[in-house]
């Protein structure tokens, strides 16, 4: 494997990052190319076609929007990994934040240097990006779609708010992708399996859908490394195309020899099975099962993956058995779940990718003497050190609701502060870790933006001839101080 550090992991996009200014980039009409643009491919991607149609004001826009943003027509699609949406808390307790309401999901398409914002509105719509001046949106003729194209600085996330007339529709984040998130010419694509279903004995008959994506060139002699991705439907179809672009990213990284060809298990949380008391009004049992599997501080989910799921995967492709060749990734509850896989099964999983991880009290039951995810940072400080490598990211606008928000979120605590707690625990115990802390809220924008760099860093120096490696904190990280917090949104004196 090629050596990849945090400094050179995104070398393909260095020119675009140096050329860009902060905030919204205004590009002169004479510009004909951008280093942030993807390499040419044989057929025009539907997202590119939509962006080009928006530039031309094409009458084909409506049909392309329906195809590329299929959930928008229903009034805004739910993020695939969230089965319910809490009430918006903006405007109730100042500074409170949950995640973007459904009306702001599935409203952006990013291609090259262009970001297309689309919203359904019966009134003239407008847009604010990164706190700049409100800008009018343009109506797609004979529809209720409104759109606006912006040039956004690549390699970061951007926060936007949509308006319908005078009504604030909601706020969310969008990733301005770097070049490795676009199809590259000459890169072979991997293979996606059909959807399969597994029934779990460990979770009382709960059923889960899953897919496997196999990068081209997997070593069938030594068997394949694997990444286990929680909330697997996020990486299927338009969810993936408008989100992390996992398949394209990993194919590109394999081609560049930054990660080994591997198997990606895309597994959904279970549905059905054992029942638990609801934690807030009208909570679906499926949501409870997801939290039980992902947020619990135990090795139970790891047992499920190792004993029930991977044996089924191995019927399709043979897997490496060493923890050195196995990793896990996810966001929100899927983030803490991926950490727990490695923490409780360090001999079986050694690489962790966590975005907006729920290191909070979502499965905290003090009356039963059961700790929530917040305890893991203390256990990192106290318990025997595990031989694992961890990439984490979060944002200052991640979840922290007021008492009028969803009850379980309020009791669970602060997502940003608990992620910082975990980062400092990993830092002070000498773990091989990286923590990126931006401004985004509880969305997959930050994961989508830095996935190429994150996976390059996690799998740097991988050698298929090895079955183990001692993960040590990088010298550059050892020289850095611990993370300190500064309040950004109010006077604290």
Fold blueprint:
Layout lengths: L13 H6 L26 H11 L4 H8 L39 E4 L2 E7 L4 E5 L5 E2 L1 E2 L5 E7 L4 E9 L2 E10 L14 E2 L3 E4 L7 E8 L11 E5 L6 H5 L4 H10 L7 E5 L17 H11 L4 H14 L12 E6 L1 H12 L6 E5 L19 H8 L6 E9 L9 H6 L2 H14 L3 E10 L3 H14 L16 H4 L15
Parallel strand pairs: 12-13, 12-14, 14-15, 15-16, 16-17
Antiparallel strand pairs: 1-2, 2-6, 3-4, 3-7, 5-6, 7-8, 9-11, 10-11, 11-13
Helix pairs in contact: 2-3, 5-12, 6-8, 9-11
Describe, in short, the structure shown:
The chain is α/β, with parallel strands linked by helices and 493 residues long. The chain folds into two domains: 11-180, Immunoglobulin-like (Sandwich), CATH 2.60.40; 186-478, Alpha/Beta hydrolase fold, catalytic domain (Rossmann fold, 3-Layer(aba) Sandwich), CATH 3.40.50.
Describe this protein's structure.
By secondary structure, this protein is α/β, with parallel strands linked by helices. It has 2 domains: 11-180, Immunoglobulins (Immunoglobulin-like), CATH 2.60.40; 186-478, Rossmann fold (3-Layer(aba) Sandwich). It has 13 helices and 17 strands. The protein has helices at 14-19, 46-56, 61-68, 237-241, 246-255, 285-295, 300-313, 333-344, 375-382, 407-412, 415-428, 445-458, 475-478; strands at 108-111, 114-120, 125-129, 135-136, 138-139, 145-151, 156-164, 167-176, 191-192, 196-199, 207-214, 226-230, 263-267, 326-331, 351-355, 389-397, 432-441. The strands form 3 sheets. Strands 9, 10, 11, 12, 13, 14, 15, 16 and 17 form a 9-stranded mixed beta sheet that branches. It has a 4-stranded antiparallel beta sheet with strand order 1-2-6-5, covered by helices on one side. A hairpin with a 5-residue loop joins strand 3 and strand 4 (135-136). Helix 2 (46-56) runs antiparallel to helix 3 (61-68) and helix 9 (375-382) packs parallel to helix 11 (415-428). The radius of gyration is 22 Å and the shape is globular. The termini are far apart. The relative contact order is 0.13.
């Amino acid at each position: 494997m090629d050596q990849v550090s945090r400094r050179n992991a995104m070398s393909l996009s260095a020119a675009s990052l140096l050329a860009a200014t902060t905030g919204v980039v205004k590009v002169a009409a004479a510009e004909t190319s951008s280093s942030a643009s993807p390499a040419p491919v044989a057929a025009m991607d539907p997202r590119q076609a939509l962006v080009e149609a928006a530039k031309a004001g094409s009458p084909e826009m409506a049909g392309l929007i329906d195809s590329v943003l299929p959930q928008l027509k229903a009034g805004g699609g739910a993020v695939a990994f969230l089965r319910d949406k809490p009430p918006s808390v903006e405007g109730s307790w100042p500074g409170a934040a949950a995640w973007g309401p459904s009306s702001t999901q599935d409203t952006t398409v990013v291609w090259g240097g262009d970001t297309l914002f689309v919203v359904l509105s019966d009134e003239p719509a407008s847009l604010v990006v990164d706190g700049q001046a409100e800008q009018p949106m343009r109506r797609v003729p004979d529809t209720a779609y409104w759109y606006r194209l912006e040039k956004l600085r690549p390699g970061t996330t951007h926060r936007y708010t949509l308006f319908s007339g005078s009504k604030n529709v909601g706020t969310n984040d969008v990733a301005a992708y770097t070049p490795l998130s676009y199809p590259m010419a000459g890169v072979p694509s991997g293979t996606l399996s059909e959807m399969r279903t597994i029934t779990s004995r460990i979770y009382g008959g709960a059923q889960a859908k899953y897919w496997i994506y196999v990068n081209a060139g997997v070593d069938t002699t030594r068997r394949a490394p694997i990444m286990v991705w929680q909330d697997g439907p996020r990486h299927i179809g338009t969810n993936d195309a408008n989100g992390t672009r996992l398949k394209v990213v990993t194919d590109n990284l394999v081609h560049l020899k930054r990660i080994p060809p591997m198997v990606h298990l895309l597994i959904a949380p279970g549905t059905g099975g054992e029942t638990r008391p609801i934690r807030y009004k009208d909570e679906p049992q499926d949501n409870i099962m997801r939290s039980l599997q992902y947020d619990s501080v135990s090795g139970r989910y790891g047992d499920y993956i190792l004993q029930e799921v991977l044996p089924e995967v191995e019927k399709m492709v043979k897997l490496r058995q060493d923890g050195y060749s196995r990793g896990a990734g996810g966001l929100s509850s899927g983030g803490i779940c991926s950490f727990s896989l490695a923490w409780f099964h360090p001999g079986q999983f050694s690489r962790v990718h966590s975005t907006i991880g729920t290191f909070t009290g979502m499965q905290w039951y003090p009356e039963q003497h059961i700790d929530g995810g917040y305890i893991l940072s203390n256990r990192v400080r106290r318990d025997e050190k595990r031989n694992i490598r961890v990439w984490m990211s979060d944002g200052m606008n991640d979840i922290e609701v007021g008492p009028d928000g969803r009850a379980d979120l309020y009791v669970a605590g602060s997502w940003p502060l608990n992620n910082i707690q975990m980062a400092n625990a990993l830092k002070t115990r000498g773990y091989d870790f990286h923590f990126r802390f931006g401004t985004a809220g509880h969305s997959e924008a930050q994961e989508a933006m830095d996935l190429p760099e994150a996976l390059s860093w996690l799998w740097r120096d991988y050698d298929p001839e090895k079955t183990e490696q001692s993960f040590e904190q990088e010298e550059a990280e050892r020289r850095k101080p611990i993370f300190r917090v500064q309040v950004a949104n109010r006077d604290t004196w």
